Protein backbone atom coordinates (compact mmCIF):
# COMPACT_ATOMS: atom_id res chain seq x y z
CA UNK A 1 0.00 0.00 0.00
CA UNK A 2 1.24 3.48 -0.84
CA UNK A 3 -0.88 5.80 1.25
CA UNK A 4 -4.47 6.46 2.15
CA UNK A 5 -6.21 9.78 1.62
CA UNK A 6 -9.73 11.05 2.23
CA UNK A 7 -11.52 13.41 -0.15
CA UNK A 8 -13.44 16.06 1.79
CA UNK A 9 -15.31 19.23 0.96
CA UNK A 10 -18.72 20.85 1.06
CA UNK A 11 -21.57 19.14 -0.81
CA UNK A 12 -21.68 19.69 -4.59
CA UNK A 13 -18.05 20.76 -5.02
CA UNK A 14 -17.15 17.77 -7.22
CA UNK A 15 -15.75 15.31 -4.65
CA UNK A 16 -17.49 12.24 -6.01
CA UNK A 17 -16.77 13.25 -9.59
CA UNK A 18 -13.08 13.48 -8.71
CA UNK A 19 -13.23 10.19 -6.81
CA UNK A 20 -14.79 8.47 -9.82
CA UNK A 21 -12.13 9.88 -12.10
CA UNK A 22 -9.17 9.08 -9.86
CA UNK A 23 -10.32 5.53 -9.23
CA UNK A 24 -11.45 5.16 -12.86
CA UNK A 25 -14.78 3.82 -11.68
CA UNK A 26 -18.38 4.82 -11.14
CA UNK A 27 -18.39 3.61 -7.55
CA UNK A 28 -19.59 6.95 -6.18
CA UNK A 29 -22.96 8.42 -7.07
CA UNK A 30 -21.96 11.84 -8.43
CA UNK A 31 -25.41 13.38 -8.53
CA UNK A 32 -26.45 16.97 -8.02
CA UNK A 33 -27.73 16.86 -4.47
CA UNK A 34 -26.13 16.95 -1.02
CA UNK A 35 -25.22 13.73 0.81
CA UNK A 36 -25.38 11.48 -2.27
CA UNK A 37 -22.45 9.62 -0.69
CA UNK A 38 -24.31 7.76 2.04
CA UNK A 39 -21.39 5.49 2.93
CA UNK A 40 -17.76 6.44 2.40
CA UNK A 41 -16.68 4.88 -0.90
CA UNK A 42 -13.20 3.44 -1.00
CA UNK A 43 -11.16 2.87 -4.14
CA UNK A 44 -7.62 1.76 -4.81
CA UNK A 45 -5.58 2.92 -7.77
CA UNK A 46 -2.24 1.69 -9.02
CA UNK A 47 0.59 4.18 -8.60
CA UNK A 48 2.15 4.69 -12.06
CA UNK A 49 5.73 3.43 -11.94
CA UNK A 50 7.76 3.29 -15.15
CA UNK A 51 10.87 2.10 -13.29
CA UNK A 52 9.04 -0.97 -11.93
CA UNK A 53 8.06 -2.06 -15.42
CA UNK A 54 11.60 -1.58 -16.74
CA UNK A 55 12.99 -3.68 -13.89
CA UNK A 56 10.39 -6.39 -14.54
CA UNK A 57 11.37 -6.43 -18.21
CA UNK A 58 15.02 -7.04 -17.30
CA UNK A 59 14.15 -10.20 -15.33
CA UNK A 60 11.07 -11.08 -17.38
CA UNK A 61 9.19 -11.17 -14.06
CA UNK A 62 6.08 -13.35 -14.11
CA UNK A 63 4.18 -10.92 -11.90
CA UNK A 64 4.34 -7.14 -11.43
CA UNK A 65 3.07 -5.76 -8.12
CA UNK A 66 2.93 -1.95 -8.02
CA UNK A 67 2.18 0.06 -4.93
CA UNK A 68 -1.33 1.49 -4.53
CA UNK A 69 -3.09 4.64 -3.41
CA UNK A 70 -6.28 4.18 -1.41
CA UNK A 71 -8.86 6.95 -1.76
CA UNK A 72 -11.90 7.39 0.48
CA UNK A 73 -14.76 9.58 -0.76
CA UNK A 74 -16.22 11.09 2.42
CA UNK A 75 -19.72 12.61 2.38
CA UNK A 76 -20.01 16.39 2.08
CA UNK A 77 -19.45 18.15 5.39
CA UNK A 78 -21.58 21.15 6.28
CA UNK A 79 -21.51 23.89 8.88
CA UNK A 80 -22.35 22.28 12.23
CA UNK A 81 -21.02 18.81 11.29
CA UNK A 82 -19.02 18.68 14.53
CA UNK A 83 -22.33 19.01 16.37
CA UNK A 84 -24.03 16.34 14.30
CA UNK A 85 -25.43 18.50 11.49
CA UNK A 86 -25.72 16.87 8.09
CA UNK A 87 -24.12 13.46 8.41
CA UNK A 88 -22.13 14.64 11.38
CA UNK A 89 -19.44 13.00 13.45
CA UNK A 90 -19.64 9.62 11.72
CA UNK A 91 -17.90 11.06 8.71
CA UNK A 92 -15.45 13.10 10.75
CA UNK A 93 -14.41 9.74 12.16
CA UNK A 94 -13.76 8.41 8.66
CA UNK A 95 -11.20 11.18 8.15
CA UNK A 96 -9.25 10.01 11.22
CA UNK A 97 -8.40 6.77 9.41
CA UNK A 98 -6.63 8.51 6.52
CA UNK A 99 -2.97 9.56 6.12
CA UNK A 100 -3.78 12.81 4.33
CA UNK A 101 -6.75 14.95 3.35
CA UNK A 102 -7.59 15.96 -0.20
CA UNK A 103 -9.76 19.04 0.28
CA UNK A 104 -11.76 19.65 -2.90
CA UNK A 105 -12.79 23.28 -3.32
CA UNK A 106 -15.37 24.52 -5.80
CA UNK A 107 -13.70 26.98 -8.16
CA UNK A 108 -16.21 26.94 -10.99
CA UNK A 109 -19.51 28.65 -11.78
CA UNK A 110 -22.50 26.56 -12.85
CA UNK A 111 -26.08 27.65 -12.25
CA UNK A 112 -27.23 24.05 -12.67
CA UNK A 113 -25.21 22.87 -9.66
CA UNK A 114 -26.45 24.40 -6.43
CA UNK A 115 -23.93 25.62 -3.85
CA UNK A 116 -25.12 24.92 -0.29
CA UNK A 117 -24.40 28.53 0.73
CA UNK A 118 -25.65 30.08 -2.52
CA UNK A 119 -22.32 31.62 -3.57
CA UNK A 120 -18.90 30.73 -4.99
CA UNK A 121 -16.29 31.63 -2.39
CA UNK A 122 -13.51 29.03 -2.09
CA UNK A 123 -11.83 30.65 0.93
CA UNK A 124 -15.11 30.74 2.87
CA UNK A 125 -15.71 27.10 1.91
CA UNK A 126 -12.27 26.11 3.19
CA UNK A 127 -12.87 28.03 6.42
CA UNK A 128 -16.18 26.20 6.93
CA UNK A 129 -14.60 22.77 6.63
CA UNK A 130 -11.53 23.72 8.68
CA UNK A 131 -13.72 25.17 11.44
CA UNK A 132 -15.70 21.95 11.72
CA UNK A 133 -12.53 19.89 11.94
CA UNK A 134 -11.15 22.23 14.61
CA UNK A 135 -14.37 22.03 16.62
CA UNK A 136 -14.23 18.23 16.51
CA UNK A 137 -10.57 18.36 17.63
CA UNK A 138 -11.38 20.67 20.52
CA UNK A 139 -14.04 18.26 21.71
CA UNK A 140 -11.61 15.35 21.45
CA UNK A 141 -8.83 17.26 23.21
CA UNK A 142 -11.11 18.27 26.08
CA UNK A 143 -11.65 14.61 26.94
CA UNK A 144 -7.97 13.75 26.56
CA UNK A 145 -6.86 16.71 28.68
CA UNK A 146 -9.22 15.65 31.46
CA UNK A 147 -7.63 12.19 31.55
CA UNK A 148 -4.10 13.59 31.35
CA UNK A 149 -4.75 15.98 34.25
CA UNK A 150 -5.58 13.03 36.49
CA UNK A 151 -2.32 11.28 35.56
CA UNK A 152 -0.32 14.51 35.85
CA UNK A 153 -1.56 14.97 39.43
CA UNK A 154 0.14 11.66 40.16
CA UNK A 155 3.40 13.14 38.81
CA UNK A 156 3.42 10.94 35.71
CA UNK A 157 6.23 12.56 33.66
CA UNK A 158 4.88 11.43 30.30
CA UNK A 159 1.41 12.72 31.15
CA UNK A 160 2.84 16.07 32.29
CA UNK A 161 4.59 16.53 28.93
CA UNK A 162 1.54 15.42 26.93
CA UNK A 163 -0.70 17.71 28.97
CA UNK A 164 1.47 20.73 28.16
CA UNK A 165 1.39 19.85 24.46
CA UNK A 166 -2.35 19.26 24.49
CA UNK A 167 -3.01 22.60 26.16
CA UNK A 168 -0.85 24.41 23.60
CA UNK A 169 -2.66 22.72 20.72
CA UNK A 170 -6.00 23.62 22.30
CA UNK A 171 -4.99 27.27 22.72
CA UNK A 172 -4.01 27.44 19.06
CA UNK A 173 -7.18 25.71 17.90
CA UNK A 174 -9.17 28.33 19.78
CA UNK A 175 -7.23 30.91 17.70
CA UNK A 176 -8.13 29.00 14.49
CA UNK A 177 -4.64 27.51 14.13
CA UNK A 178 -4.80 23.83 13.08
CA UNK A 179 -2.81 21.23 15.03
CA UNK A 180 -0.42 20.66 12.09
CA UNK A 181 0.75 24.28 12.46
CA UNK A 182 1.49 23.96 16.19
CA UNK A 183 5.14 23.32 16.98
CA UNK A 184 4.63 20.19 19.11
CA UNK A 185 4.11 16.52 18.30
CA UNK A 186 0.37 16.12 17.81
CA UNK A 187 0.49 12.41 16.84
CA UNK A 188 -0.40 11.09 20.31
CA UNK A 189 -3.72 12.95 20.16
CA UNK A 190 -4.98 11.61 16.80
CA UNK A 191 -6.44 14.91 15.62
CA UNK A 192 -8.17 15.76 12.35
CA UNK A 193 -6.35 19.06 11.83
CA UNK A 194 -2.98 17.38 12.37
CA UNK A 195 -3.30 15.62 9.03
CA UNK A 196 -1.54 17.06 5.96
CA UNK A 197 -3.94 18.79 3.56
CA UNK A 198 -3.74 18.98 -0.22
CA UNK A 199 -6.12 21.55 -1.69
CA UNK A 200 -7.65 20.61 -5.04
CA UNK A 201 -9.26 23.50 -6.90
CA UNK A 202 -11.97 21.98 -9.07
CA UNK A 203 -12.19 24.28 -12.10
CA UNK A 204 -14.12 24.27 -15.37
CA UNK A 205 -12.50 22.58 -18.40
CA UNK A 206 -11.26 25.81 -19.97
CA UNK A 207 -9.27 26.69 -16.81
CA UNK A 208 -7.60 23.31 -16.23
CA UNK A 209 -4.22 24.46 -17.54
CA UNK A 210 -4.22 28.03 -16.26
CA UNK A 211 -6.59 28.19 -13.30
CA UNK A 212 -9.09 31.01 -12.78
CA UNK A 213 -9.83 33.85 -10.38
CA UNK A 214 -11.24 31.45 -7.79
CA UNK A 215 -8.31 29.03 -7.82
CA UNK A 216 -5.95 32.01 -7.66
CA UNK A 217 -7.58 32.99 -4.35
CA UNK A 218 -6.63 29.60 -2.93
CA UNK A 219 -3.11 29.78 -4.36
CA UNK A 220 -2.58 33.27 -2.94
CA UNK A 221 -3.65 32.21 0.55
CA UNK A 222 -2.14 28.73 0.86
CA UNK A 223 0.74 28.41 -1.60
CA UNK A 224 3.96 27.73 0.31
CA UNK A 225 1.96 26.48 3.28
CA UNK A 226 -0.15 23.69 1.78
CA UNK A 227 0.03 22.12 -1.68
CA UNK A 228 -2.56 23.53 -4.10
CA UNK A 229 -3.51 21.58 -7.23
CA UNK A 230 -5.68 22.82 -10.08
CA UNK A 231 -7.76 20.01 -11.56
CA UNK A 232 -10.92 19.82 -13.66
CA UNK A 233 -13.08 16.95 -12.45
CA UNK A 234 -14.87 16.79 -15.80
CA UNK A 235 -11.62 16.47 -17.73
CA UNK A 236 -10.41 13.79 -15.32
CA UNK A 237 -13.59 11.81 -16.01
CA UNK A 238 -12.81 11.97 -19.72
CA UNK A 239 -9.20 10.93 -19.13
CA UNK A 240 -10.42 7.95 -17.09
CA UNK A 241 -12.22 6.61 -20.17
CA UNK A 242 -9.06 6.61 -22.32
CA UNK A 243 -7.26 3.28 -22.05
CA UNK A 244 -4.40 3.79 -24.51
CA UNK A 245 -1.46 5.61 -22.80
CA UNK A 246 -0.37 7.39 -25.99
CA UNK A 247 -3.89 8.59 -26.69
CA UNK A 248 -4.20 9.77 -23.10
CA UNK A 249 -0.91 11.67 -23.36
CA UNK A 250 -2.06 13.31 -26.59
CA UNK A 251 -5.39 14.27 -25.00
CA UNK A 252 -3.57 15.96 -22.11
CA UNK A 253 -1.17 17.78 -24.43
CA UNK A 254 -4.06 19.12 -26.52
CA UNK A 255 -5.42 20.67 -23.32
CA UNK A 256 -2.05 22.12 -22.36
CA UNK A 257 -1.64 19.68 -19.46
CA UNK A 258 1.52 17.74 -18.61
CA UNK A 259 0.04 15.40 -16.03
CA UNK A 260 -3.34 13.95 -15.14
CA UNK A 261 -5.00 14.79 -11.84
CA UNK A 262 -4.18 11.32 -10.53
CA UNK A 263 -0.49 11.80 -11.29
CA UNK A 264 -0.54 15.20 -9.58
CA UNK A 265 -2.27 13.81 -6.48
CA UNK A 266 0.12 10.86 -6.19
CA UNK A 267 3.27 12.96 -6.67
CA UNK A 268 2.08 15.61 -4.22
CA UNK A 269 0.94 13.00 -1.72
CA UNK A 270 4.33 11.27 -1.72
CA UNK A 271 6.11 14.61 -1.28
CA UNK A 272 3.73 15.79 1.46
CA UNK A 273 3.94 12.57 3.45
CA UNK A 274 7.67 12.09 2.87
CA UNK A 275 7.34 8.74 1.10
CA UNK A 276 9.65 6.89 -1.25
CA UNK A 277 9.82 3.57 -3.11
CA UNK A 278 12.13 0.58 -3.01
CA UNK A 279 11.96 -2.62 -5.06
CA UNK A 280 12.43 -6.36 -4.85
CA UNK A 281 12.97 -7.92 -8.27
CA UNK A 282 13.28 -11.46 -9.61
CA UNK A 283 11.88 -13.91 -12.18
CA UNK A 284 8.83 -14.63 -10.03
CA UNK A 285 7.84 -11.01 -9.37
CA UNK A 286 8.84 -7.37 -9.46
CA UNK A 287 7.43 -5.64 -6.41
CA UNK A 288 7.31 -1.95 -5.46
CA UNK A 289 7.20 -1.08 -1.75
CA UNK A 290 6.40 2.27 -0.14
CA UNK A 291 8.33 3.47 2.91
CA UNK A 292 8.88 6.73 4.76
CA UNK A 293 11.99 8.72 3.84
CA UNK A 294 14.75 8.17 6.40
CA UNK A 295 13.89 4.53 7.11
CA UNK A 296 16.82 2.16 7.62
CA UNK A 297 17.32 -1.12 5.76
CA UNK A 298 15.91 -3.26 8.63
CA UNK A 299 12.80 -1.07 8.80
CA UNK A 300 12.30 -1.41 5.05
CA UNK A 301 12.74 -5.17 5.36
CA UNK A 302 10.00 -5.13 7.99
CA UNK A 303 7.58 -3.80 5.40
CA UNK A 304 7.90 -7.12 3.61
CA UNK A 305 7.72 -9.26 6.74
CA UNK A 306 8.32 -8.57 10.42
CA UNK A 307 10.70 -11.57 10.58
CA UNK A 308 12.94 -9.82 8.04
CA UNK A 309 13.39 -6.86 10.37
CA UNK A 310 13.75 -8.91 13.53
CA UNK A 311 16.42 -11.21 12.07
CA UNK A 312 18.07 -8.68 9.77
CA UNK A 313 21.75 -9.41 9.00
CA UNK A 314 22.51 -7.23 5.99
CA UNK A 315 21.09 -6.19 2.63
CA UNK A 316 22.36 -6.36 -0.93
CA UNK A 317 21.48 -3.08 -2.63
CA UNK A 318 21.52 -2.16 -6.33
CA UNK A 319 20.47 1.10 -7.94
CA UNK A 320 17.72 0.81 -10.57
CA UNK A 321 19.96 2.54 -13.11
CA UNK A 322 22.67 -0.11 -12.70
CA UNK A 323 20.15 -2.95 -12.74
CA UNK A 324 18.74 -1.77 -16.08
CA UNK A 325 22.11 -0.78 -17.60
CA UNK A 326 23.91 -4.03 -16.77
CA UNK A 327 20.89 -6.27 -17.34
CA UNK A 328 20.17 -7.80 -13.96
CA UNK A 329 21.64 -8.87 -10.63
CA UNK A 330 24.36 -11.24 -11.85
CA UNK A 331 25.87 -8.70 -14.26
CA UNK A 332 25.68 -5.96 -11.63
CA UNK A 333 27.61 -8.15 -9.17
CA UNK A 334 30.23 -8.95 -11.79
CA UNK A 335 30.66 -5.21 -12.46
CA UNK A 336 31.16 -4.59 -8.73
CA UNK A 337 28.16 -2.31 -8.56
CA UNK A 338 26.26 -4.13 -5.81
CA UNK A 339 26.61 -2.79 -2.28
CA UNK A 340 26.43 -4.71 1.01
CA UNK A 341 24.83 -2.54 3.71
CA UNK A 342 24.18 -2.99 7.41
CA UNK A 343 21.61 -2.00 9.99
CA UNK A 344 22.42 1.72 9.85
CA UNK A 345 21.95 2.10 6.10
CA UNK A 346 19.34 4.72 5.23
CA UNK A 347 17.26 3.66 2.24
CA UNK A 348 17.48 5.72 -0.95
CA UNK A 349 14.76 6.29 -3.54
CA UNK A 350 14.58 3.36 -5.97
CA UNK A 351 16.87 0.97 -4.10
CA UNK A 352 16.58 -2.66 -5.25
CA UNK A 353 17.10 -4.87 -2.21
CA UNK A 354 17.75 -8.45 -1.30
CA UNK A 355 17.51 -8.84 2.48
CA UNK A 356 19.50 -11.48 4.35
CA UNK A 357 18.12 -12.50 7.75
CA UNK A 358 18.12 -15.17 10.46
CA UNK A 359 14.94 -17.18 10.92
Descriptive report:
40% of the residues lie in helices and 19% in strands. It has a six-stranded mixed sheet with strand order 2-4-1-5-6-7, with helices on both faces. Strands 3-9-8 form a three-stranded mixed sheet, sandwiched between helices. It has a three-stranded antiparallel sheet with strand order 11-10-12. The relative contact order is 0.14. A hairpin with a 3-residue loop joins β8 and β9. About 4% of the residues have low confidence. The chain is α/β, with parallel strands linked by helices and 359 residues long.
Give the biggest beta sheet. 6 strands, mixed
Number of strands: 12
How large is the radius of gyration? 23 Å
- The class by helix and strand makeup works out as alpha/beta
Let me know the average pLDDT. Answer: 89
What's the order of the H and E elements?
Answer: EHEHEEHEHHEHEHHHEEHHEHHEE
- Uncertain regions spanning at least 5 consecutive residues: 26-38
- Level of helix content? 25-40%
Any key phrases for this structure?
13 helices; about 350 residues; three-stranded mixed β-sheet; single chain; six-stranded mixed β-sheet; about 40% helix; flat; alpha/beta
Write the layout of secondary structure elements.
Elements: E1 3-8, H1 15-22, E2 41-46, H2 50-59, E3 63-65, E4 68-73, H3 89-96, E5 100-106, H4 122-153, H5 157-174, E6 197-202, H6 213-222, E7 228-231, H7 233-240, H8 245-254, H9 261-273, E8 275-281, E9 285-292, H10 297-304, H11 306-310, E10 312-318, H12 320-326, H13 329-334, E11 339-341, E12 352-357
Parallel strand pairs: 1-4, 1-5, 3-9, 5-6, 6-7
Antiparallel strand pairs: 2-4, 8-9, 10-11, 10-12
Helix pairs in contact: 1-7, 4-5
Amino acid sequence: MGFNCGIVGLPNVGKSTLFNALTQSAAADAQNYPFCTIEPNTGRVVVPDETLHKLAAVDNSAKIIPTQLEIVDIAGLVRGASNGEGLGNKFLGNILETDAIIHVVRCFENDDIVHVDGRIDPIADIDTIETELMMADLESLAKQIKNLEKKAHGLDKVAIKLLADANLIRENLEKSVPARDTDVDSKPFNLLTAKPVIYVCNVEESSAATGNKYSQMVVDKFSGKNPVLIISGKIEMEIAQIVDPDERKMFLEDLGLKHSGLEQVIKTGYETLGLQTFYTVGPKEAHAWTITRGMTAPQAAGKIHTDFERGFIRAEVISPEDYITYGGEVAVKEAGKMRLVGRDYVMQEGDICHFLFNN
